[in-house]
Amino acid sequence: MKNDKIKFPKTVRVGGLTYTIIFPYVFVDQPTYVGLHNGVSATIRIADTYQECKRENQVLLETYVHELLHAVDFVYNCDSVDEEAIAVFARTWLQVLQDNELFLYTKKLPKKVKIGCFTYVVNFPYASIENPKTTVATTSNSRLVINIDGNDGAEDFNLEFIKIALLHGIMSAISCICFGNEEETQSVSNMKKVSVSHGLYQVLTDNKVDVLINKYKSR
Fold first, then answer.
1. Cα dihedral 96, 178, 46, 11 in deg (nearest 10)
2. What is the pLDDT of residue 158?
3. What single string gives the DSSP state of each residue in 1-44?
4. Residue 98 forms part of a structural domain
């Protein structure tokens, strides 16, 4: 359905806020804008044209993810990530959601996740020596693995908790790939990846964001 006109939901739920999606929106005062998040009014505006040119579905989806990440940052992270970092995260998360089946709604976990040009192996349950009784994602970018710990009773762990751990591992990988450990910007280093991962999981699953992306993605 990549050639069909995209239909965004009228509202999305982010934490305790219900955002209104205004699409298509015409930016008059800021004609170079293609999207805008406003946490105070709980609105997301998305333009369907740029300089009188119709915007394709794939760039509309990128804008949608971009503004949703602003909303997640606003609600779950005290609005602390700058515009440049949000833009990078949005482009990469769009790719991750397009190229991978993350099994967000089932007990199944992906065995591998493609992030950018890299393919990470997902290990769960991972027998962590350092944290034998903790379920948490640790990402090794040199080895291209995401380890979700859980030595004892892994089958009893809450589904949402495991999925959030997966998203946390992916977020850590994106941070390293796009910004590097040494060159990470201040706003990215200030980002509370655990709380953002919780927020991202809530937004993705409550609003079926991955379903919309895969319905209109370019093939």
1. 50
2. 81
3. -TTSPP---SEEEETTEEEEEE-S---SS-TT-SEEEETTTTEE
4. yes
Q: Which amino acid is at 109?
A: L
pTM of the predicted model as reported, rounded to 2 decimal places: 0.90
* Contact present, 178 and 92 (Cβ < 8 Å): yes
| Number of domains, the chain | 1
**Cα distances (Å, whole numbers) of residue 197 to 10, 40, 111, 163, 192:** 24, 22, 19, 9, 8
pLDDT digits (tens, 9 = 90+) for 10-44: 999 999 999 999 999 999 999 999 999 999 999 99
Record the tokens describing residue 190, joined without a space. Answer: 């200030």
Q: How confident is the model at residue 109 (pLDDT cuts 50, 70, 90)?
A: very high
Does residue 205 lie within any of the structural domains?
Answer: yes
User: What domain range is 131 assigned to?
Assistant: 11-211
